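Researcher: Go.
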Amino acid sequence: MTGVPSPVAPEAEAERGPAGGSGGGPGAGGKTGGSFLAKAALVTAVLSVAGSLLGLVRDQALAHFFGAGTDTDAFLVAWTVPELAATLLIEDGLAFFLVPAFSLALTRRADSTSADPVHELVRASLPRMTLCFAGTAVLLIVAAPYLVAVLAPGLPDPRLAVDCTRLTATCALTFGLTGYCSAALRAHQRFVAPATVYVAYNAVIIAALFALAVPLGVRAAAAGVAVGGALMVVVQAPSLWRQLRRPYRPEPETTTDTETTSTSTSGAEPARTLQTAIIWTVLLFALCRQSQVLIERFLASSLPAGAISHLNYAQKVAQMPMALSLMLCTVTFPVVARALAMGETERARERVERDVVLAGCLVLMGAAAVIATAPPLVELLFQRGAFTARDTATTASVMRVYALGLLGHTLVGALARAHFSGARTTWIPLHAMFLGIVTTAGIGFLTVGTWGVLGIAGANATGICVTALLLLRGLGPRTVPIRKRAVVGQLGRLVLAAAGATLLGAAAVRGVAQPAPAVLAGFAVVAVSFALLGLLLGAQPWATALRSVGRKLRHVR
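Model: Structure:
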């Protein structure tokens, strides 16, 4: 590539494909170097931050118009449907088996002498999946009253929740198509369009709240979910269409009869990567993971009004560091899947180890900042309109407890990708997640009566950490055989650095009265102290960064 790279360089590089290719695009020799991955991760992170900030504005608008009362609780019960759909269809479920499937099809495209393996995969999967998505949406709309009764049996008036659920149920179709497009584009190393989906989605919900909150009440937010889901498909469809209509030129047949027979069936192989067992293991894992939220809503529905809202606001803010830390894993997931498809286990192992440590570094620094600045941060973000000082105090306390499990959430996201990247059936993630859910439910039921929302948040943090440990233990020769002891050692150093940074950040916040200066002071102290303590403890990300800077300086000289 010549000239100065633009901010969308990864998109342009993937569009052009490898030099001298035969129309195979990334599949024939995709960009997997550090420079490309860094640019792709940067673009993805910037757009994801924009989507997260709009999600924060969405939550602020919801808090402003409806506070933390019965209307908000009713909408948040309906919000369970898009939350679950996002996990199953966009973020985890579909991506965990479609990205490896498309990566394998793209790898085989270079050797295929007949039909395009990518087109064969699309023809075999997209129509059937679309029919399943549509049928699920219709079923959810019809069964909305029963669904609300199961999710939140303690709601005083479930009719509003039923109305909102029928509107949000449309996301079973729109999110499914969104996830399919995102997985296919990421396998083609096209990252910009998938990263814009939450920008469009949250922008529509915000617009709906400001335009329709007065005449429709909280139903306006549910209507925004329905329209925003459709827009997520629209923003990706042109990019995917351009990829699929690129001309495919099969390689000339120069093999023996036996080899020809083998390669002539390669077009059907990608379809076989979507085995029923693989699909079920992935979807059940994602469903089991998202059931943590269902357990929380179920337990909180028996608490005083506003409990579900406090949990929701605290979780949304606390999980922002996790979402940002997993951006790198999202970008490198197709790289790991393709490396395993090509038999390059060592390259996949090194990539996963770097991703886990770097993601852990980022999320621990974010968790330290969230814990240290929780009260002024919640006050700055939400305390206006119907959101009172009492709501701020409760939400901040819950957010601090949630943040204790952020490293566990991040490791589950990163390690699950390592388990599923081989495009083969594995039950380890499901077993690990099931044991984590049992832990969450057990601790939640035992503590909700005494500790209320704090007990629910603590159960969430404990359960997800159990799952993370089991996923790490389960990595081995059949998946990605990472060096567990070395990775755990690095993460342990980072945890110590985060603990020290949290104490220093909390001390800095305590002496500042206004929320905005307090948050800025806390974030600054946490960032500096975390970096210094990490260097002192010999944590790998800083040592690697210093070596990189040294190489750059020597190159400049």
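Model: The chain is about 80% helix and 0% strand.
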